[in-house]
Amino acid sequence: MTAATDLLPPPPAFGAPVEQAPCPEVLQFLARRRSTPALTLQAPGPNAEEVAAMLRLAVRVPDHGKLAPWRFVLLPAEEKAAFAARLEALALARGETKAAAKLAKLKVPPFAVAVVARPRPHEIPEWEQILSAGAVATTLLFAAQAMGYGANWITDWYAYDAEARAILGLEPEERVAAFMLLGTPAEPPLERERPDSAALISTWRA
Predict the structure, then answer these.
(1) Facing residues of 180 across strands?
(2) How many CB atoms lie within 10 A of CB 26?
(3) Could you please report the per-residue DSSP string of 3-65?
(4) Whole-number Å distance between alpha carbons of 67 and 122
(5) Phi and psi at residue 175, to the nearest 5°
(6) What's the average model confidence in pLDDT over 58-70?
(7) Cβ–Cβ contacts within 10 Å for residue 128, how many?
(8) DSSP state of 43
């Protein structure tokens, strides 16, 4: 069986023409893309080579100013369990049992990647830098699913709590854009209700 990473072309050389061509397979993928519930993600998760490939694809996003205003924190199974245990201790020390219970989504999947937004002081507005971090998270989600893994993008309280962010190793100015939970789906996810795109469109007129 051909590994998903074997299907990736090498990165284009700097300054080389990058061919732009129709890709019906991508349209089919987007038309059926569906997040997998975190509690149904099981082993095996992606291996180191696959994660590296996902992240190589994830950084190919719009990035005004070429600032790379984002980074990644990898949470393999054992490290993720230790991270979740420290978050649970933090929540229980505060008497926040509901917050502790919400850690189940983080505990169950075999692998996670924290996408961290780190906006820089620059003429490029902070808002654009944060949007770029969101684009990185979205592309990571797509890359994982295109490789055959289930993926779920969550944040929850530990993405916003200052002490929890410190446990993750973030600087005060950094923010968690996503905890991307990865694994093998125990079952195909069911389609959910989608918004009617036609109802969200307006046309500007002079």
Answers:
(1) 113, 153
(2) 11
(3) -GGGGSPPPPPTT--------HHHHHHHHH--PPPGGGEES----HHHHHHHHHHHT-S--TT
(4) 9
(5) -135, 150
(6) 97
(7) 16
(8) S
Amino acid at 186: A
Q: Nearest-CA neighbor of 53 among 148, 115, 140?
A: 140
In this predicted structure, the answer to whether residue 89 has a pLDDT above a threshold of 80 is: yes
pTM across the whole model: 0.93
- Token pair, residue 69, equals 């205003």
Pick the closest to residue 189 from 69, 41, 27, 2 (CA basis).
41
Q: Residue 1's pLDDT band (boundaries 50, 70, 90)?
A: very low
Alpha-carbon gap, residue 166 to 29, rounded angstroms: 37
CATH architecture of 35-185: 3-Layer(aba) Sandwich (3.40)
What whole-number distance in Å separates Cα of residue 101 and Cα of residue 34? Answer: 25
At 170-185, the pLDDT tens digits run 999 999 999 999 999 9
Beta strand spans in the chain (E)? 41-42, 70-75, 111-117, 150-154, 175-185
- Rounded CA-CA distance 51/48 in Å is 5
Cα 31 to Cα 162: distance, rounded to the nearest angstrom: 38
Full DSSP string of 118-129: ---SSSS-HHHH
Helix axis angle, 24-32 to 126-146, nearest 10°: 100
